[in-house]
């Protein structure tokens, strides 16, 4: 990851106010408020079906926020969703990789969509950094779930987003992979990036400086670190 100094601007990267979302008549999110500053990690805990993935989908602009206010890096996301989308990176359960393409070809496609100037040499370096150098020319369809997760996360090293959104990032990773991921995320935070993740793994999250939240009955509440294991 190319280092860049933490922002001297104290303005928060994410400001979410009174965000609401429903599926038909079912109210999933009710008046969500969340502020995340540069270099801060917010971890969302909650039972399955509590709305964590829905909240991440709203923050990523995959879902349209129809009630509430959402500012990303000072941009009103409801008014300028495309401009906001360029400042974030979302990695969820689906890695959105093309199985017939190699890691190099997948990253070439990603950088072309984002209009990120890069060379094949730089892409190969990123692939090596995430531990996939021995599989650089193999189709992704033959990769394990952990290898796919590593390649998906390689996008972070290329996009340098203001906001990183992760949905269950530790799934499919072995112990070595968890350590590698936490080191990468720690560097991202140290360089001023903002991170919001949904997780069921407080023990793995513990290696990161973070602020825990619990989502229950459509509402988001801050909790203490001692309450994290109970919030899952």
Q: Which parts are unreliable, with pLDDT below 50 for 5 consecutive residues or more?
A: 1-8
How much strand?
25-35%
* Count of all domains: 2
Count of alpha/pi helices = 9
Rg estimate, integer Å? 17 Å
Report the oligomer: single chain
CATH top level class name of the largest domain = Alpha Beta
**Biggest sheet architecture:** 6 strands, mixed
| Beta-strand segment tally | 10
Report the CATH architecture of the largest domain: 3-Layer(aba) Sandwich
Write up what this structure looks like.
With 232 residues, this protein is an alpha/beta fold. The protein folds into 2 domains: 12-87 and 162-226, Rossmann fold, CATH 3.40.50; 96-160. It has 9 helices and 10 strands. It has helices spanning 52-59, 81-85, 103-113, 120-129, 145-153, 156-159, 175-190, 202-205, 228-231; strands spanning 14-23, 26-36, 41-45, 67-72, 75-76, 88-91, 163-167, 194-198, 211-216, 219-222. The protein has a 6-stranded mixed sheet, sandwiched between helices. Strands 2-1-4-5 form a 4-stranded antiparallel sheet. Helix 7 (175-190) links the parallel strand 7 (163-167) and strand 8 (194-198). Helix 3 packs across helix 4. Residues 1-8 have low confidence and may be disordered.
